[in-house]
Amino acid sequence: MLHKIIALQINFNSMRNLNFRNQPFDAATVEAVWRKGSPIFGLNPDTDRKDTCGAHMKRSEYGNTNSKYGWEVDHIRPKAHGGGDELSNLQPLQWRITGLKVTHTRPIPITTVLSEVNSVRRAVNSALLLPLYKTRWNEKSIE
Hints:
The chain is of the alpha+beta class. 44% of the residues lie in helices and 13% in strands. The chain is built from 4 helices and 5 strands. The protein has helices at residues 2-14, 27-35, 95-102, 110-142, and strands spanning 38-39, 48-50, 56-58, 71-75, 90-94. It has a 3-stranded antiparallel beta sheet with strand order 1-2-3, with no helix packed on it. The longest helix has 33 residues, at 110-142. It is globular, with a radius of gyration of 19 Å.
């Protein structure tokens, strides 16, 4: 089972950042997609931007899946489901989020991905804040 998972990961990695003809995107397309990312207040938009999910990306980390700032050119509507390479169908996306999208057998709207990311954030925040609330409640109940 593990060797199948590793093989799938290798196949997936070999498909990253490829256009419809399975060729790497040209520099002009990569730059145009980068410009679609949202600028981050206080940081240089030529070097730092956010993707649709709010993940921080660095321009120099394009294609780097070993960096938390790595990003990829993502097809909003996947190639496998009829999506093309027109700029309107491309977006910059942090590489881990791109991986989340492709783990499903059908395309996932980015709003669904955002919803999942936000629910994880809420769960983490709740887990961090819950002990504070319990402590305060316990102190009040003792008095």
